[in-house]
Design brief:
The protein has strands spanning 8-15, 24-31, 34-39, 43-48. The chain has 64 residues and is mostly beta strands. The chain has a four-stranded antiparallel β-sheet with strand order 1-2-3-4, with no helix packed on it. The chain starts with 7 loop residues before the first strand and ends in a 16-residue tail after the last strand.
């Protein structure tokens, strides 16, 4: 990103709440430096992008 460009990204998928083994719809939305994870359209968790560690993909492992 350069200058005034701001990141705006939404990714949909599935996640787990840690209480049940049931997959639930999940959305990860990044706007600028704010990251919001929504699970089952009800639970939201917020972070600043600089608080997260994002590891690179592992070669040969799909979805890593």
């Amino acid at each position: 990103m350069t200058g005034s460009q701001q990141l705006d990204l939404t990714v949909s998928g599935a996640g787990f709440d840690g209480r049940t083994s049931r997959r639930q719809p999940a959305t990860l939305h990044v706007t600028g430096s704010r990251v919001v994870l929504s699970l089952n359209a009800m639970v939201e968790t917020h972070w600043q992008l600089n608080q997260l560690r994002i590891d690179p993909a592992v070669p040969g492992i799909p979805g890593s």
